[in-house]
Amino acid sequence: MHVKYIFSGMRLAMIKNVTEYLDNTAKLFPEKTAFCYENKSITFCSLQEQAKRIASAIISYGLFRRPVVIAESSKLNAVISFVAAAYSGNFYVPIDVEIPKMRLKKILDTLHPAMIITDGVEGGDVYDLLLQAGASKEQIYFFQDLVDKRIDQAILAKAGKRQIDTDLLYVLFTSGSTGIPKGVSISHKAVIDYTEWYSETFSIDSHTVYGAQTPLFFDMSISELYSTMKQGCTTVYIPQKLFMSPRKLVELLNEKHINTIFWVPFPLCMIANLGLLEKCPPQYLEKVLFAGESMPNKQLNIWRRALPKVLYANCFGPTELANIFAYYIVDRNFEDNEPLPIGRACRNIDILVLTETGKPVECGEVGEICVRGTCLSNGYYGDMDMTDQVFIQNPLHHDYRDMIYRTGDLGYFNARQELCSAGRKNLQIKHKGYRIELGEIESATVVFESVTACVALYDREHRKICLAVTPKMVDVQKLYNHLKNELPQYMLPGSIKTADAFPVLANGKTDRRTIMEELFNE
């Protein structure tokens, strides 16, 4: 049985906690696999039961609307703990268990959590890391101890009545320019609004089988997480090591009958560059969504030629929102060197592209992309000063409180009134008196026949544009001659280096800092 929209017809105002999705789905599909990772899986009924056990324990400790840190190596245990925090009326904070000690200390100092749940053991690596980062033994609770508690329906019901949809669901920590991680706070209401739109727009239903790439401590993961609970999907969490082995990755997609993926472009480009779409194509894919970085049309065109019946969508949005705020379902052909539009606003979101003086841009004019709507974060946890810098009053009027988020992304509207990216403000450089978008250099580079990936960087100390390309065999002189025909003189790189592959961050995005250090700061 396929149920396309479980909550279709129900007013969103009636849903105030994401756990209501799970409660409904656990009745419809109690024994269906909800999430699986390697050789372990959990059904919707079991997820609900175990989450309620842990939630009952959390409530019994007197916690309400407090941060619950989840430091678990098991993805399934982490998902159970997320849901438990939501049932209990608290909010979860997922932590990478391989995080550097000092970064973890800064996060704990910001949060002052009353509870840290770990699936480790006393004296284990994660336990020791928590202690070294300043956590006390009294703050640390073990997953297995909590999940062995009994469900207390009375205190769960009491906690549920106290909750409202503007309560926080989670806090995700991102990198901060000051060196202090920023805790992005997101409410139930924002995630519910997003999940409703996302499920409807991409026809997510009980037939959907996700192949999830993003770690649970990154925002892209909420698309699979909550649409699975809402619609009765199955999510297969793919081990990160497979994203370095493209053939095995495609084999897993076929083995698990995965039909929907929402990935950063890096693994999609690797699969295209290695010719795997012809050698061993994914047999069950119906939807390919991507976000996090620009997807080059050169590689996207390879996918579209090989799998023309698949839906492809470019999604765009920072952590400071409940995932994405704009999307473009690819509906026409593009040349390899054309930019792929961001598209249009998701439902119930307003996108403003503003000049430096706070005025709306004209068609084709570049400005900063700003966003307003239910999707917005509640701000940075414990840092109102930083919050006030980017969550500001709508400059188009001062009649009432109307907050917008300044994304730091540059964009413009094309002749079709589609929003297009013009890079990051912090990737816009001033070189030889000219303002230059590094993304424009990358667009000109990636279409060169032998280039599979590229990154344009700026060495501010030596005032030099640097260009890194893969693979190692690229003829640098021929590439430079190509760029001379594509770019003005002032935009030409002063240094070009080649590499077999680029390093990537834990979320799959290109590690620009490491590329600069390893290739250009030798």
The computed structural class is alpha/beta
**Percent of residues in beta strands:** 15-25%
Query: What integer is the average pLDDT?
Result: 92
Distance between the termini: 59 Å
- Shape verdict: globular
Q: Got a strand count? A: 26
- Describe the biggest sheet? 5 strands, mixed
Which regions contain 5 or more consecutive residues with pLDDT less than 50?
A: 1-13
The percent of residues in helical segments reads 25-40%
> Over all CA atoms, what is the radius of gyration?
23 Å
Tally of helical segments? 17
Order of strands in the sheet with most strands: 11-12-13-14-15
Quick overview:
The protein has 522 residues and is of the alpha/beta class. Helix content is 32%, strand content 24%.
Structure overview:
- Helix content is 32%, strand content 24%.
- The protein has 17 helices and 26 strands.
- α13 (297-306) links the parallel β12 and β13 (311-316).
- α8 (188-201) crosses α9.
- The protein is globular, with a radius of gyration of 23 Å.
